[in-house]
Design goal:
By secondary structure, this protein is α+β, with helices and mostly antiparallel strands. The chain has a single domain (16-310), classed as q2cbj1_9rhob like domain (Jelly Rolls, Sandwich), CATH 2.60.120. 38% of the residues lie in helices and 21% in strands. Helix 2 crosses helix 3 (30-52). The longest helix is centred in the N-terminal third of the chain and has 23 residues, at 30-52. The two termini are 31 Å apart.
Length: 318
């Protein structure tokens, strides 16, 4: 374990006035990366505390508090209006059918059509005779710039001031952009590996459009892993920053070894699950039925996002 004196020596060797030198030091030394990240979070927390004062509704305050503490919060029945759910389910089934039809004749796993990004989470070369899809996940994605052409049910959530207030307070600034995914999950051979979506900042809101049991492929998430980071998570985050892997993941065995508390995203149609995508999380295998949902990605221009993305430099990817 590194001593305070050793860390001080490493930090003193960094030319903090030269951004490129800071970038290289953070890439080469995980302890420098960790020091910078924690200092940026401390600064950003001041903005979060200021924004949080605007949340006076008791229910919203509880959701915000749960999200800050655990990296995940559930708002039961927030969108359980039967007409909303029926209309949203119909749209998701139509658009995901179009996705699969658009991609079936191609080797690509995603395609842009009508300005929207369509994709299926299936390997190009998959094992024969499985009888089911490998991952069974089909998505269509819209940005907030495309929202005018989106389905009315998508707009209801994207323009909901309650959700936007919580997402804004969590980051310290209102979302600069919202991405929306319409998703279908059907019985499959495998689920996702434990992973981080981003090493810097991203918050999501998932709206269940169908009831989700343990057999329908619920989200799973390591509670508190967005702040109470193990050595394993710090290494994953640094690897994402330094080497830019397309997918930063770990194993079930690693989660068991770290004795993590796992949240399971089961619930009723209309429930809203908000979570920090820098927590360890994964979609599980759907064993029967289906899971339909909307997933909202909040893209922030918070102090944290701006500073950490500046660390990437011109050669980085977000």
């Amino acid at each position: 374990m590194m001593t305070d004196q050793q860390l001080t020596q490493r930090l003193e060797a960094v030319n903090w006035k030269d951004l490129e030198h800071v970038r290289q030091a953070a890439k080469q030394d995980p302890e420098v990366f960790k020091f910078i990240y924690q200092k940026v979070e401390e600064q950003n927390d001041r903005d979060v505390e200021t924004m949080a004062r605007s949340i006076t509704d008791p229910t919203m305050a509880k959701i915000f508090g749960d999200l800050r503490r655990d990296g995940v919060a559930v708002w039961p029945g927030l969108y359980n209006d039967p007409q909303f759910l029926e209309s949203a389910r119909k749209f998701v089934k139509e658009v995901t059918a179009d996705v699969k039809a658009s991609i079936s004749s191609r080797k690509d796993s995603q395609v842009v059509k009508n300005g929207y990004l369509y994709g299926v989470s299936e390997p190009v070369e998959k094992p024969a005779n499985l009888g089911v899809p490998v991952y069974g996940r089909t998505r269509a994605q819209w940005s907030s710039r495309d929202m005018a052409n989106g389905h009315p049910t998508m707009k209801v959530v994207a323009q909901d001031p309650r959700i936007m207030s919580i997402l804004g307070a969590y980051s310290g600034r209102p979302p600069a952009e919202i991405l929306v995914i319409a998703e279908e999950l059907v019985p499959s051979f495998a689920g996702q590996e434990w992973h981080l979506d981003k090493w810097y900042e991203q918050i999501k809101a998932m709206i269940l459009l169908t009831d989700c049991t343990m057999k329908n492929g619920p989200l799973r998430l390591v509670k508190g892993s967005h702040r109470n980071r193990s050595k394993r998570i710090w290494k994953m985050m640094h690897d994402c920053y330094a080497f830019d892997p397309s997918y930063c993941c770990t194993s079930d065995t690693a989660i068991e070894e770290d004795k993590c508390e796992v949240f399971w995203g089961t619930g009723k149609a209309g429930d809203c699950i908000l979570f920090d995508a820098t927590t360890l999380h994964a979609g599980t295998r759907c064993m029967e039925g289906e899971r339909l949902d909307y997933v909202y990605y909040a893209i922030s221009d918070s102090l944290k996002s701006q500073t950490l993305l500046a660390m990437l430099g011109t050669g980085g990817k977000s």
